[in-house]
Amino acid sequence: MLQVITSIEDIKQRIKTFKENQLSIGFVPTMGALHEGHLSLVRQAKEENDKVVVSIFVNPLQFGINEDFTQYPRTFDNDCELLSKEDVDIVFNPKASEMYPNGFCTSVIMERIEDRLCGKSRPGHFRGVAVVVLKLFNLVNPDIAYFGQKDFQQTVVIKRVVADLNLGVNIKVLPTIRNKEGLALSSRNAYLSETEKNDALCLYKALIKAQTMVNAGAKNAKEILGEMEKIINNCKSAKIDYISIINPETLESVPEVRKGDVAALAVRIGKTRLIDNTILFFIMAVFIHLI
Ligand code: AMP
Question: Where are the alpha helices (DSSP H) in the chain?
Fold first, then answer.
């Protein structure tokens, strides 16, 4: 039965009992407004662990002052229903006032990687992500934590923090789940009108173009980026934040594409900022669609 825990003391107690009973813990951190993308992580966590904890916390620290913290969709009851159906053990839903009490001032600085890509237009975002994930890891003490490839830079940041600070948690990154048309599922898709949802497919089309060019032998990143840009610019409501082909560890732009490099982009569709990416293979990449 799904247990909702909101206090830090209670989650510590519950985790202590799991540990005393030598039960392995799978952890899926989320901001709620759950969809099939989140649930794919939950299902994998269920398969691989004795107990599964999902956190739902819209983390104020990772939103900039002019960003969508207040509008961010909050659908807690529905989320709990979904998690209940997946037979999740615990949903941890802490209060911001308990996570960040008066006097809170600690941060995590990730030199070089936090200011690239999304970090450029969202200064401080990844510090906020690193702080909350670190706090949640300390509270939940998971054996394995699950993240989505959709938030690619986030996975790089988390893996870096785990390696650099010697955290004893195994990080698993699972593929991006898309709708039938190819749009990556995101809680922020709720902001899109039907027309915008259709326009938003340009992100996916640009990624497919990159993959197709690579399959056909293209290596020059500038040439590939040029074609991706054309696809996005063809869509009237789209405004490019960035399009890059990067090394998956350093996040530096590459002049020539190698296997495993990542094509990543952030595009505003109307007022909504969407991100997407794909790992470039030299055979056709597999895009997972909902059937
Ligand atoms: P969020 O609630 O947006 O912070 O996301 C929580 C976790 O779900 C993160 O690890 C995301 O990368 C992951 N996630 C979000 N959307 C998707 C998706 N479409 N496919 C796979 N994972 C996703």
Answer: 8-20, 36-48, 76-85, 96-99, 118-121, 125-140, 152-164, 194-199, 201-215, 221-233
Atom number, ligand 1, closest to the C-alpha of residue 154: 12
Q: What angle do CA 131, 11, 177 make, to 5 degrees?
A: 60
Q: What range does the domain containing 134 cover?
A: 3-174
Q: Is 30 in the pocket of ligand 1 (CB under 6 A)?
A: yes
Domain final residue, candidates 130, 145, 174 = 174
Token pair belonging to 70:
């207040």
Residues annotated as catalytic (active site), given as ranges:
38
Tell me: do 106 and 228 sit in the same domain: no
96-118 pLDDT tens trace = 999 999 999 999 999 999 999 99
The token duo for 279 is 């790992």
pLDDT in tens, 122-148: 999 999 999 999 999 999 999 999 999
* pLDDT band per the 50, 70, 90 thresholds, residue 275: very high
Grouping H, G, I as helix, E, B as strand and the rest as coil, residue 265 is: strand
Confidence of residue 291 (pLDDT cuts 50, 70, 90): low
